[in-house]
């Protein structure tokens, strides 16, 4: 892989996505996976892990805003937020735009955090230096199984359910998340592209509905996640959190002073309006 070559991603069977490589900024092996960061004329700097695109400067705002602002504005008064994964720092960046008291991130691979801070600084944008941030380098599932801390919102910004990220899609992990929630708590997860990863979504939502009073998903369109819109899993101890009305969301959004490029209160409500094939998948 070098400048002028093409990066080929083959996450999905029978489908490949290729990106022109401008310059390879970093390539190496962390303790857990192959990591490469390179430039692309359209999307800017791109990070891939084990050959799969994770984030790009060009469209990261879509994913990170929707993973963060949907649960936080739905909750309305979150003080303690937990991020599992998310080593690029984008979710953490968006979470810290809210008046939270503490943001804990548990990331297995410190190499991802270090490379992101060095080569993709705009994504974390100083989030790891915020005094409200506590970074724990370790296994997210192990942390959830052992901690007695409680959180208002838990965001699982994981890789796909292969390799080290697989355990973060298990019923046992979701049960531990529930145990660590304050009343009215919300869990949001990365659940892939329904058109190509239906089993992943069906499995997670099934676990949510067995464990939580409310389990569902919502959608966002991230251009570099091949296969159309992607799903964010949703589980809450309070079913009313998923149906907060648009006027309330608008009041919370405007009072926050947060500027977003993708998220809006109207889009928040619309993201839960699922196409029929997704509705059938999740029952």
Compact summary:
The chain is of the alpha/beta class and about 280 residues long.
Structure description:
This protein is an alpha/beta fold and 283 residues long. The protein folds into two domains: 6-54, Spermidine Synthase, Chain: A, domain 2 (Roll), CATH 2.30.140.10; 60-282, 3-Layer(aba) Sandwich (Rossmann fold). It has ten helices and 13 strands. The protein has helices spanning 60-75, 90-95, 110-119, 121-124, 140-146, 171-179, 198-211, 246-256, 265-271, 276-282; strands at 6-9, 17-20, 24-29, 34-40, 44-49, 52-56, 80-85, 102-107, 133-137, 151-157, 181-190, 214-220, 230-236. The strands form three sheets. The protein has a seven-stranded mixed β-sheet, sandwiched between helices. A hairpin with a 3-residue loop joins strand 4 (34-40) and strand 5. The mean pLDDT is 95.
Secondary structure layout plus pairing:
Blueprint: E1 6-9, E2 17-20, E3 24-29, E4 34-40, E5 44-49, E6 52-56, H1 60-75, E7 80-85, H2 90-95, E8 102-107, H3 110-119, H4 121-124, E9 133-137, H5 140-146, E10 151-157, H6 171-179, E11 181-190, H7 198-211, E12 214-220, E13 230-236, H8 246-256, H9 265-271, H10 276-282
Parallel strand pairs: 7-8, 7-10, 8-9, 10-11
Antiparallel strand pairs: 1-2, 3-4, 4-5, 5-6, 11-13, 12-13
Helix pairs in contact: 6-7, 8-9
In CATH, what is the class of the largest domain? Alpha Beta
Secondary-structure arrangement, i.e. CATH architecture of the largest domain: 3-Layer(aba) Sandwich
Derived from helix and strand composition plus strand pairing, the structural class reads alpha/beta
What is the CATH H-level superfamily of the largest domain? Vaccinia Virus protein VP39
User: Could you state the order of secondary-structure elements as H and E?
Assistant: EEEEEEHEHEHHEHEHEHEEHHH
Strand order, biggest sheet?
9-8-7-10-11-13-12
DSSP E strands, number: 13
Spatial gap, N to C terminus: 44 Å
Radius of gyration: 18 Å
CATH topological fold name of the largest domain = Rossmann fold
Overall spatial form: globular
Q: What is the total number of structural domains? A: 2
Strand content: 25-35%
Assembly state: single chain
Mean pLDDT, to the nearest integer, reads: 95
Unreliable stretches covering 5 or more consecutive residues? none
Helix content bin: 25-40%
Helical region count?
10
| Major sheet | 7 strands, mixed
